[in-house]
Every structure is written in C-alpha cells, then in structure tokens.
Amino acid sequence: MRILLHTCCGPCSCHPVSSLRLSGHRPTAFFFNPNIHPYREFERRLEAMKLFARSEALDLLIDDRYDLRSLLEKMLRSPEKPERCLSCYRLRLGETARTCREGAFDAFSTTLLVSPYQYHDLVRKAGEEAAADHGVRFLYNDFRNGWAETIATAREKRLYRQGYCGCIFSEVERYRGRRRVE
Fold this sequence. Notes:
four-stranded parallel β-sheet; about 10% strand; 4 strands; Rossmann fold
C-alpha cells in the first residue's frame, strides 16, 4: 500500500518508516507542523526531516505553512492538556487526510504514534476522525515499541533532536520539568 505518513520530525520518522517498509508498504513522508514554535525550531525540524528523507531515499511532501495566529486561536479554545493536544492532532491529521485523498494514497498514518510522550489514544481518535471526514483510511500502528530504535537511528544519522513536542505550551512545560504523559 502507498501510505502518506505525517511526520512531526526526522528522528520520530526513523522507526515508523522502517516498520512500514518491512510490512511491504511504500511510505511517503508528509511534513505539516504549523504548531512548532518558535519559527527557528520549525526550520530546524524541517531541515532534519529533509536530511532523514535524503538518507532513506524517502519521498517527502512539505507543507510549510506557518499560520501561528490561527493555530493559537484554535489551541486557546481549550488551553489545557489533553484537549489542547487533541486540537493540534486534529489540525495536522486533518490536513494529512486531505492530502492523502488528493494524492490518491491508500491510507495515511503518523509518526506521532511512535512517541511515548504523546496522548496515543487521542492521536488515534484524531486520525480516525480525519479519515472519516475525508473518506480515506487511517492506518493505525502503535509504533512505540520502536522508540529506542528511533533514538538510536537519529543519533547515528546525527539528526537534530528536539526537547519538546513543538508548541509554545509544550516548550514551557518541558523547561519547567514536566515529563511523560500517560
């Protein structure tokens, strides 16, 4: 199957890409992350994604829209976790599902499913909602078993690894010492 894989960054793409390929799928990466703050962080993550894609001969689609005002307006409607995170997942996976439909892919998935720091059930919920809204298939795969591989491969490839999810709220939480969510 041709899979459109929403990618949050290069490092988190390592295991999902290898896992999908081992399962016989043909992933194409899709970078759409207007949530990442500040803008220089957005640029660093996009460059790391490009580097990873080149190193893996992985097709990469990039939507580099950066509408911070619109994103913050959406997130401020529900500023507390986990509702804030769900709104961000819906934004990114909704656009991925739309791109999946327009690109005639067989299904879509996301690298968000590799991180033990994400609200996994809410990522799945947002993916399934987006699939229903756009008439495409969401390929659910719990990639968390490959978290260690993701870190090791990212280090080996010298990919930039960030210290927080991406949004301005997660940046503050990260540097205040909050840890893993369950």
